[in-house]
Amino acid sequence: MPRSNALFHLLAVVTVAIWGTTFVSTKVLLLHGLPPAEIFLLRFVQAYVCLALLYRRRWFVGWRDEGLMLVAGMTGGSLYFLTENTALEYTLAGNVSLVVATAPLLTALLASLTRASRSGVRLWGASVLALAGVTLVVMNGQGHLAFHLAGDMLALSAAFSWAIYQLVTKRLCDRYGATLLTRKVFGYGLLTILVYFLFRPVDIDPTLLARPVVWGNLLFLGLVASMGCYWLWSKVIERLGAITSANYIYLNPVTTLAFSYLFLGEPVSAYAIFGAVCIITGVYLAVSPERQRPLRRKPR
Q: How many domains does the chain divide into?
């Protein structure tokens, strides 16, 4: 990979590694009684307030681009988290992890359909290898996955939502900086989640927020995983493109597996380790440039 892009590949790995730990952090909050939608609300409020204080300019950029930012806020914020978290109520967590991990494939497919980019055979092959690795990591030696239509379709909706976010963000990154774009994503994410709360009132027990483990995890999710990582991801998409950056999402189950083992004591099988190797290999093949074969001159 070009040296100029090496830093952004590293940032992509770091960002996805942090996002992989959010499953553990969110699980801790769920066990303490915070509902999924409220967790999203609290983490995005923190991120938006901080970014609004840091960047107080350009509150309106034109109706067309505001519309695109609204789409980014929904697909990368409210809609993505609602469909993913709600899917957990209807199907297994392993199913959700596996189906959401199809986001890079969906990104490449949508890019091809919209002619935003063309994907070669190597990229598709690397994606299939990484997805096979995700399957092994999610199954973790259990031998099978039970499918539940409602939950699995919600998880697929989350993956499709993130694929749209990747492409829309890439289009906007060409015209706006990461700070402005990230602030807009959080703002529209919060605005659109309010529609959900019109049908189900906010349910937050104030006594929960006084617990160090609760507010500690909320600060991590809001300031690090949301504000910091979304900002970094915007820079990564801007530099590497929607498809290349999306392939790093395959690493998410690997970091989740590692941190679940370290902090939750969940077992790790040989199948999962082999799956992690497949994922890392697939991602490497997907993001590394293909070598051009030298042209052979015909004898005169």
A: 1
**Contact (Cβ atoms closer than 8 angstroms) between residue 274 and residue 136:** yes
Quote the Cα angle for 249-80-227, to 5°: 70
Q: Does residue 56 contact residue 130 with C-beta atoms inside 8 Å? A: no
pLDDT tens digits for range 219-230: 999 999 999 999
Is pTM beyond 0.90? Reply is no
pLDDT at 287: 64
Of 23, 12, 14, the closest CA to residue 257 belongs to: 23
Residue keyed to tokens 């681009």: 65
Quickly tell me which residue has 């697909």 as its tokens. 75
In a domain, 210, yes or no: yes
- Measured between alpha carbons, how far is 17 from 256 in angstroms, rounded to an integer? 8
Domain that holds residue 235: 3-287
Position 300 in a domain:
no
Taking only the tens place, the pLDDT of each residue in 71-114 is 999 999 999 988 887 887 787 666 677 778 778 888 887 887 77
| 142 in a structural domain | yes
102: closest CA among 299, 292, 253, 224?
253
Burial 260-292 (b: 16+ CB within 10 A, else e): beeeeeeebeebbeebbebbeebbebbbeeeee
- Whose tokens are 């015909």? That residue is 298
- Of 221, 172, 183, 219, which Cα lies nearest the Cα of 40? 221
Is 292 a domain residue? no
Phi, psi of 92 (to 5 degrees): -75, 150
